[in-house]
Amino acid sequence: MKVETLKDLLLWTAEPHRRLPHYLIELKHHEVIQMAMGGNRLNDI
């Protein structure tokens, strides 16, 4: 899933136990955002 906005990210991670691997949940929040955005969307948040 391509996450385009912070809202999309929040929706995507609303059920992390179902949607994300456990190791991803344990990362710092900004690292999760960076990974979800592909590292190039942070300025748009």
Write the layout of secondary structure elements.
Blueprint: H1 6-12, H2 16-19, H3 22-26, H4 29-36
Brief summary:
This protein has 45 residues and is mainly α. The protein contains 4 helices and no strands. It has helices at 6-12, 16-19, 22-26, 29-36.
Judged by helices, strands and strand pairing, the structural class is mainly alpha
* Number of E-type strands: 0
**Domain tally:** 1
Unreliable segments (pLDDT under 50, ≥5 consecutive)? none
State the end-to-end CA separation: 17 Å
> What global shape is seen?
globular
What oligomeric state do the depicted chains represent? single chain
The helix-strand sequence is HHHH
Largest sheet: none
| Tally of contiguous helical segments | 4
Rg, alpha carbons: 10 Å
Tell me the β content.
under 5%
Query: What number is the mean pLDDT?
Result: 64
What do you see in this structure?
With 45 residues, the protein is mainly α. It has one domain. 53% of the residues lie in helices and 0% in strands. It has four helices and no strands. The longest helix is centred in the C-terminal third of the chain and has 8 residues. The radius of gyration is 10 Å and the shape is globular. The protein starts with 5 loop residues before the first helix and ends in a 9-residue tail after the last helix.
Main features:
45 residues; 4 helices; mainly alpha; 53% helix
